[in-house]
Design a protein that fits this description.
Elements (H helix, E strand, L loop, with lengths): L1 H16 L15 H16 L10 H10 L4 H18 L4 H4 L5 H7 L2 E6 L5 E5 L6 H4 L5 H27 L6 E6 L10 H17 L4 E7 L5 H8 L5 H4 L2 E3 L5 H4 L25 H4 L11 H17 L29 H5 L8 H10 L10
Length: 375
């Protein structure tokens, strides 16, 4: 019948084109029935298999892996298992405290990047200028391994310090960031092998172990030649992430300011901020609510441990000994002996000297070397 033909046609379209795309975002509070079922099953499988009992892996955390794998439970479970194995191997739980590279401050002078306030909805605002440094010069200051661990440490700080602080500021759950990538000065010469490896490291860490962190990225100041570079890196970025990236030229400020207030954009990128009170300017200020609001229990524990280690590292002040005063002995005047009177002189008519006899008596009783006044 016509109705049967219609039903067959519908079934054919469903099997050929797949299921209708779910309009729900997959974030907490906006889950479809099937997404909620996947989350419940995901959580139960992790618990029943004893994969982890760590309280940091709440539903918000697990949903990131489910969204990254389009709520396909088997793929999300494999991704999460690989993630847990990696965390053990790289001691990621201790990354904030453990991975402290002393050369990073020097490296940041070459490679300008960092968090700089928040966007209009309270998400951490990250800025990166990858074309303003030479990779060979950077690798003279830090190694590839140090860069890797630095990225891991920054992701852990983002999850456990920056996001919770932004959530406290806004009163809503903040679990993603907004990124601005300025590639002013890009040339094809920047695509040397070491540069490609550097970019792949940054991409792979976020893609494999910290999925669904980025809400939006603007790649700005992109010259025409950048299309060739984008073709190289595009395959390393999953489709869902690529959809969050906008590539524009130099006239980006008007569109950017819809998302970020100009007061949080450095002046050199068309904003109003200069961070005059910070040595090095905006890229060294790390300004944001994470300096006023606390992180979660893991972030606060890490900060406390860092403070304790800093106290241990501070040199204990050694008291400077005060030298005892040098007592200079006061010289005692030694009296000159007075010659006895010449009796023969008196008999010869020499007159007597008044008091001469008294002096002679005093000399007979004087003790040489006694302190003044005790003679």
């Amino acid at each position: 019948t016509n109705q049967e033909d219609c039903d067959i046609g519908k079934r054919f379209k469903m099997s050929w084109f797949g299921k209708k795309k779910d309009k729900h975002t997959g974030f907490m509070g906006d889950l479809s029935g099937s997404q909620q079922e996947a989350l419940d099953e995901f959580r139960k499988t992790i618990r029943d298999n004893g994969l982890t009992s760590d309280t940091r892996y709440d539903d918000y955390y697990l949903l990131r892996f489910l969204r990254a794998r389009q709520f396909k439970l088997d793929k999300a479970l494999k991704m999460f298992k690989d993630f847990l194995d990696w965390r053990v191997e790289y001691r990621a739980d201790e990354a904030i405290v453990l991975y402290k590279c002393p050369n990073i401050p020097e490296a940041r002078k070459l490679y300008q990047h960092g968090y700089h306030g928040v966007d209009r909805v309270g998400r951490p605002f990250y800025i990166d200028q990858p074309c303003k440094f030479d990779i060979d010069e950077l690798l003279q200051v830090v190694t590839k391994d140090e860069l890797y661990t630095y990225y891991v440490r920054e992701y852990e700080k983002l999850l456990h310090i920056r996001f919770p602080a932004c959530s406290a500021l806004t009163g809503t759950k903040i679990e993603q960031s907004f990124s601005l990538l300025s590639i002013e000065g890009f040339t094809m010469g920047k695509l040397k092998e070491k540069s490609r490896e550097f970019v792949k490291i940054a991409i792979s860490i976020g893609r494999d172990y910290y999925p669904e962190i980025m809400a939006k990225m603007y790649i700005v100041n992109a010259p025409f030649l950048f299309k060739g570079a984008w073709a190289i890196f595009k395959p390393f970025i999953d489709e869902k992430t690529r959809d969050k990236i906008s590539i524009v030229g130099s006239g980006f400020q008007k569109d950017l300011f819809k998302y970020v207030d100009p007061s949080n954009v450095p002046a050199e990128l068309g904003g109003k901020c200069v961070c005059a009170d910070c040595e090095g300017g905006c890229f060294f200020s790390d300004k944001g609510p994470w300096h006023e609001y606390p992180g979660d229990e893991f972030g606060e524990a890490a900060k406390q441990q860092l403070l304790e280690e800093e106290k241990k590292d501070d040199p204990v002040p050694v008291p400077v000994p005060v030298p005892a005063p040098v007592v200079t002995p006061v010289p005692v005047p030694v009296p000159m002996p007075v010659p006895a009177p010449d009796v023969s002189s008196q008999s010869a008519g020499v007159p007597d000297v008044p008091g001469l006899g008294q002096v002679t008596v005093q000399m007979d009783h004087m003790q040489l070397g006694s302190p003044p006044g005790q003679q």
